[in-house]
Every structure is written in structure tokens, then in C-alpha cells.
Automatic annotation (TrEMBL):
InterPro entries: AhpD-like, CMD-like. GO terms for molecular function: peroxiredoxin activity. Residues 19-102 form the Carboxymuconolactone decarboxylase-like domain. It comes from the Bacteria. This is Carboxymuconolactone decarboxylase family protein. The lineage of its organism: Bacteria, Pseudomonadati, Pseudomonadota, Alphaproteobacteria, Acetobacterales. It holds the Pfam family CMD. Transmembrane segments: none annotated. Signal peptide: none annotated.
Amino acid sequence: MRQHEELPAAAGDVARAYPELYRAYAALGEACAKAGPIDGQALRLVKLALAIGAWSEGGVHSHCRRALEEGIPKEALKQVALLAIPTLGFPKAVAALTWIEDITDGKRTTPQPRP
């Protein structure tokens, strides 16, 4: 889990205001990641898919940034959004693709309202 200094503004503010809570949250995330055999790039792609399914634009942005830092190709990130089409529907998958492209292609820097 990232240090609170690296978190987006609001999340970083909460982490600084409640450091014990944030440490517990970070420890939970690490424990969940270590709970089974999924690791590396597969783990990051699963987390991206979960953020897409949860309809979390901030989560999608975060996992895309981290995936790129970990060397995952942007085409793989975009494929995760396309894989969402049959499960979540075309409009939600397209929205997720635009969130991914915000990071991979630098298309937008400010959040866009959700439909």
C-alpha cells in the first residue's frame, strides 16, 4: 500500500488525520494480496477489474498509474475494460475505458461526472 504522502489529496488528508486507521487499512490490503497465489501483474489487473466493477473512477486511475509503474502495457489495462462489456454492459465498460485512457493517454486531468 502506498504511503499517505503519495495518495490523492482527500485520501492523503484522511491518512494523515487518522494514521492508525490508515496503517490498519494498509495492513489489510497487504494481507489480502498475500492470501493466495495471485501476484504481480495478475494481481494488479484483478484490482483494476474490481475498481471497474465497483464503478470507482479514482480506484481505476490509481490502479492504472500503479500498473504502468509496474511495467504493465496500457493495452492490457484497456483490455480489462473491454472484458467488462458482457458483465457490466457497454456503457459502463466504455466509461471505464475513458478512465483508463485518462491515465494511459493523458486525455483528461479533472474528474468527469458519472452518468
